Amino acid sequence: MYQVNNTADIKEVFKKHLEAKNYVTDKTGVKTIEILGASFVADKPAIFGTPNEEYIKVEIDWYNSRSTNINDIYNDKEAPQAWQYTANTHGEINSNYGHLIFSKKYHKQYQHVLQELCEVNPDSRRASMIYQRPNIWREYKENGKNDFICTNAVTYYIRDGYLHAAVQMRSNDVMFGYRNDYAWQRYVQEKLQTDLYYNGIKTELGHIYWQVQNLHVYERHFNLVK
User: Fold this and answer.
1) DSSP letter at 204?
2) Distance (Å, rounded) from C-alpha 35 to C-alpha 23?
3) DSSP alpha helix (H) spans, the chain
4) Does residue 162 contact residue 203 with C-beta atoms inside 8 Å?
5) How many CB atoms lie within 10 A of CB 190?
6) Distance (Å, rounded) from C-alpha 120 to C-alpha 143?
7) Could you give the CA distance from residue 91 to residue 50 in angstroms, rounded to a whole number?
8) pLDDT (0 to 100) of residue 1
9) For a disulfide at 42, which of 31, 77, 92, 208, Cβ 3.0-4.6 Å?
């Protein structure tokens, strides 16, 4: 278990793992370095490298469309390779995060969180949006999919005038997963802050607490860790 303060601390942990050659080989035979039980304040949009802001905007727009088909990410070109790997033969996936928190199918979780913090209890500990589901064990591989949702849940807290988010993840690739997931979670936090304001609750934007069961770097990105 690693309880650290911020992304700079996480960098140092990965550097030590790389220097010590603490490798884990994944199912494809690729080496990774990993941290189990990572917990830190996500104070930067990237741990290593630089976010692709152009793609992040496209992905957030796609999440907001609630489409579960990767062919809708772009109109004029193929979806990113990582999404192609997760999709079934028709392009369908499970992990459209906007679909999971906004749609009626998954109980309009965003709206429930907003209502909880506005009308029920601003000090609540149950303002949670649950991304994962038990039947993922069947759905992650149906029709050729490979999409076992990476985010488990996100819970929002209003404390001392700040709106904080606690993100709990099953698995997170440092290079692409963290950057894009961070951008989405910051987007939702800012949206919730705005909607709270329009409902009479003024907050400052607080921390995002990032809790990951398995935070990892693939071998092809070891050079960035160095």
Assistant:
1) E
2) 11
3) 7-19, 53-65, 81-86, 97-102, 109-115, 136-139, 177-198, 222-225
4) yes
5) 12
6) 42
7) 28
8) 46
9) 208
How far apart (Å, rounded) are the C-alpha atoms in residues 101 and 95?
Answer: 11
Please give the mean pLDDT across all residues of the chain. Answer: 96
The whole-number pLDDT of residue 3 equals 53
Q: What is the mean pLDDT of residues 19-43?
A: 94
Residue (of 176, 145, 217) closest to 46 by Cα position: 176
Active site residues: 150
| Residue 132 scores a pLDDT above 70 | yes
Whole-prediction pTM: 0.95
pLDDT in tens, 86-123: 999 999 999 999 999 999 999 999 999 999 999 999 99
Q: What is the pLDDT of residue 170?
A: 98
Q: How far apart are CA 80 and CA 179, in angstroms?
A: 15
Q: How far apart are CA 104 and CA 221, in angstroms?
A: 39
Return the closest-CA partner of residue 148 out of 104, 86, 196.
86
Of residues 206, 164, 182, 158, the one with CA closest to residue 10: 182
Q: In the chain, what are the domains?
A: 2-53+108-225 (3.30.572.10)
Assigned token pair, 54 = 């152009």
Quick check: 90 and 68 in contact, CB under 8 A? no
Q: Three-state SS across 63-104? A: HHHCCCEHHHCCCCCCCCHHHHHHCCCCCECCCCHHHHHHCC
